[in-house]
Automatic annotation (TrEMBL):
The keyword Calcium does not apply. Gene3D superfamilies: Periplasmic binding protein-like II (3.40.190.10), Winged helix-like DNA-binding domain superfamily/Winged helix DNA-binding domain (1.10.10.10). The lineage of its organism: Bacteria, Bacillati, Actinomycetota, Actinomycetes, Actinomycetales. One of its GO terms (molecular function) is DNA binding. This is HTH lysR-type domain-containing protein. PROSITE patterns: HTH_LYSR. GO terms for cellular component: protein-DNA complex. It comes from Actinotignum schaalii FB123-CNA-2. The keyword Transcription regulation applies. Keywords: DNA-binding, Transcription, Transcription regulation.
Length: 294
């Protein structure tokens, strides 16, 4: 399996056309077609559905496109890192993250690393709970920012200093908007828009589970929550970080009382040797967190 073939397939998957892919790759259409055919022969699976007009990925093709992107990313990172073994630190750090205010700790560390080593690149990617272990184990992620409530036994964990505070997002016209805080009793009987299992607070997660009849609408993309509230669907359980960044005018974030906050950690796979750039990044995160608790 050649990287050139993977690159051709990823481009075809993105643009949806052999012709457009050939233009982007600066090669002929027959060459692109041949590379895809050779990939399919190697895998023993069809990656493209050619039965209709245009090009569509088969279910296997959709799965393989994700794997191909990860392989190409890892290949580029490896070349970058080894090309700078005897010089300044370079390479790439890929960080998976949930929506959390703790990203600010990581952002400060990224700035410190890049100030010292301008050749370092960083990618932040949104992650889901069911894929994090696979992506850490496959080197698709260097690190991940996850709620402390997630059970990731066997992984190294560095607690981050910034915490998320949970509350409810309501229309300004709601009687709840005038409150300094709301308790769970205030929410009894209300239609709720609830986060999925990325909730990082055990008490809140238990309460949501006990009141699942009120949680008829679930979101896992935080930008959807304020849109749903604005449309009158219900009231969104959300953290202050998400509410502060994506709430349209006319909505108010009211904290839950007693204070309901959650903590997050930076995690990584201890069985994998960290690269120089990953070690430098980790050291900066430790420094940021140590400074925050002084």
């Amino acid at each position: 399996m050649k990287l050139q073939h993977l690159e051709a397939f990823v481009v075809v998957a993105r643009v949806g056309s052999i012709k457009e892919a050939a233009v982007e790759l600066n090669c002929s259409q027959p060459s692109v077609t041949k590379q895809i055919r050779e990939l399919e022969k190697t895998l023993g699976q069809e990656l493209l559905d050619r039965s209709g007009r245009g090009i569509r990925l088969t279910p296997v093709g959709v799965l393989f496109a994700g794997r191909a992107r990860e392989i190409l990313s890892l290949s580029r990172r490896t070349v970058e890192e080894f090309s700078m073994l005897h010089g300044d630190i370079g390479g790439h750090v890929v960080i998976g993250t949930v929506e959390s205010a703790a990203v600010v700790d990581v952002a400060r560390a990224i700035k410190c690393v890049r100030d010292k080593h301008p050749g370092v690149g960083v990618t932040l990617r949104r992650i889901r709970r069911e894929t994090i272990l696979e992506r850490l184990a496959s080197n698709a992620l260097s690190f991940a920012i996850v709620p402390d409530s997630w059970d990731l036994a066997g992984y190294e964990r560095l607690p981050l200093s910034t915490r998320d505070r949970w509350g409810i997002l309501v229309p300004a016209a709601s009687s709840l908007a005038a409150k300094k805080g709301v308790n769970v009793e205030d929410l009894e009987g209300l239609p709720l828009i609830c986060p999925d299992d990325s909730v990082g607070h055990r008490q809140l997660a238990r309460w949501l589970d006990e009141h699942s009849d009120q949680c008829r609408v679930i979101y896992d993309v935080v930008y959807h929550a304020p849109q749903l509230v604005d449309a009158g669907v219900g009231y969104a359980i959300i953290n202050d970080c998400s509410a502060g960044r994506c709430s349209p005018l006319g909505l108010v974030f009211v904290p839950l009382v007693p204070t309901t906050d959650s903590s997050t950690s930076l995690v990584w796979d201890p069985s994998r040797a960290l690269t120089r750039v990953e070690l430098a990044f980790l050291e900066e995160v430790r420094g940021v967190c140590a400074q925050a608790i002084r």
